[in-house]
Amino acid sequence: MQAQLEWLKAHDGELVGQLGDLVAIQSISTDGEHQREIDRSADEVCKQMRWAGLENVAILKSGDSNPYAYGEWLGAPGKPTVFLYAHHDVQPVNFVQDWQSDPWKLTERDGRFYGRGAADDKGAITVQLGAIASYLKTVGKLPVNVKMLVEGEEEVGSKNLGAFFQEHKERLQSDIIVVCDTENIETGLPSITYSLRGIVALHVEVQSATKPVHSGMAGGMLADAALALNVILSRLYWKNGKLPIPGFYKKVRKLTAKEKRAFRKLPGNNKTWRRDLGVLKGVQFSLKKGVHPHEQTWRLPAVTVIAQEASSIKGASNQVLPKAEAIVSCRIVPDQDPGKVGKQLTRFLTEGPPWDVK
Ligand SMILES: [Zn+2]
Prior knowledge:
- The protein is built from twelve helices and twelve strands.
- It is α+β, with helices and mostly antiparallel strands.
- The chain folds into two domains: 2-179, Aminopeptidase (3-Layer(aba) Sandwich), CATH 3.40.630; 198-356, Alpha-Beta Plaits (2-Layer Sandwich).
- Helix 1 packs across helix 4 (122-136).
- Zinc ion binds at residues 87, 120-121, 154, 181.
């Protein structure tokens, strides 16, 4: 691989420039207001695919999906076909004042590159194309066949991806899929992710009356929807044990002894975890006693209240609130069934509500 490594070293600046070109395109998929930029970023990916030496490069679509950039190299008959996945859409820039440099201009600081999408997931496009180019531009061939797909709607749930795979089944047929949209456990330590948690979300709404009433008049008599909601949510409090939802862990696949040992050998300790998560001094982790952080965050389910709304602090007035709502998000793990988890959670939260609120 000497020739390839030397080629990569010699073309480092060019590859960084290509990443910069991708980062400069504001391909935000979450607000529906950047369709032109998403088209442009798909075109730019295609251009870079052709530069790397991929063939049959094309923009593909499924229904009204955002554009997928596709390219392949099939010059290794008899060898396996590797399917590479990445995405060219990005999240919005919400707190622009907190950025130390222009989010749309790839900027190097202390040996790291910063910019919206530089890591998630445009960096993956550059890295994969760099690897491909380093072979095709030196030895003229790859050791395997490659099919590379870069989608444009990962940040909004990839809702067309299933149909897209069905539609383009023949073309996409491969032996192995490599998803390059994960992270390294530590800077400079390449990592292979072999499992991710899924998600089930519930919208919980509590209602006690048809209108808010002055608390001086009805306080203590009218059921307080905000308080009722929080009494319901408090059922989920697991202290440092398991989630108290009946039957919840029944299907959870157990870690093998080998996995357990491997998890414990990985880098990370209390100090680095606390620092990375920004945990305040004196605040404990909510881990079950004896459970390793990697086991909890990779292979055990979890529940999080990701939003709660009743009335704003700014607009607060003396009233008993008749309505309150929250979104409860649940991380699920191998062998848990999302439909069943949704049902278990719904039953657990709706049974016997305080004051019989709706
Ligand atoms: Zn991503």
